[in-house]
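We now fix the convention by which a protein and its fold are recorded. The integers have meaning only within a learned vocabulary of local backbone shapes. A complete example follows; check for yourself that the lines match position by position.
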Amino acid sequence: MAGIEFDRQIFTPAVEAQRAQAPKAMGVILLVLALGLAGLVGYKVFTQASQSNAIASANAQVEQLQQQLAESQKRVEELEKHRRPVKAEVAVPPPQPVAVAKNPAPAKPVYRIAAGSALPPQPKPAMIAAPIQPAQSAASANTAAIQTELTANHEAWQATTDRLADVVGVVGQQQNELSETREAVNQLLSQTRRQALSFELLRGNNRMPVGPVTLQLKSVDAKSQRYSVCVYFEDRCIELKDRVLNEVVVFVVSKNGAPLELVATKVLRDQIVGYLEVPTDKQQR
């Protein structure tokens, strides 16, 4: 009889599978334990951190409250300091004898003889009036200084006014003298008959006789309309410098001679055009 044969391969995979599953189960268990430990440690750390934060915030609040209490105590002390003198003044009123009168009169007549003054004690007004004296002296000193400054300013203003009056007087006198001189010249011009002699002067060394004199153009400025002319009389030159267009230039060539008038009506680049007024009697001679 042949023996019973078992297929060993059927039982081998099951044992090996169980052996393979055992380490996997241990790994899972270890992983779960590790996660639990990590969670526990994290929870403890979290609780400790939250407690430390809470303690820090509580300490900060306590310090803030302590500061507020200290400030409030300082304010209370300042208020008490400010109120103390007022209370002292109110607590010590001047003696009033009227209070004695309100009490019922005693039986004995001796106690009725009591002279109480209704007026307040005199030292207090003296003490109050004492600090007023320096203020009054300072005010009087300031008033005296202001009055002195005002007096000095008034004197300076008066001196300036006098100087201006003197200057105005001098200017007025000079104006009167100029007016008299102008009137004399105008009267002298009106007394003589005059004739206008026209001329055209070119710049250079050329001389042009005009009436009793000879004219020579020295310089011309057409831009500013100015010129300079030399008037010759008996070999003497009377230079009329920096004259403008249409200006009446009055000059005298001799001591007792009549004045002459020169007027330039055009100022060109190299020449001028104008006329010379001379007395008729002088020209006839």
About this structure: The chain is about 55% helix and 20% strand. Confidence is low (pLDDT under 50) at residues 86-91, 98-102, 125-130.
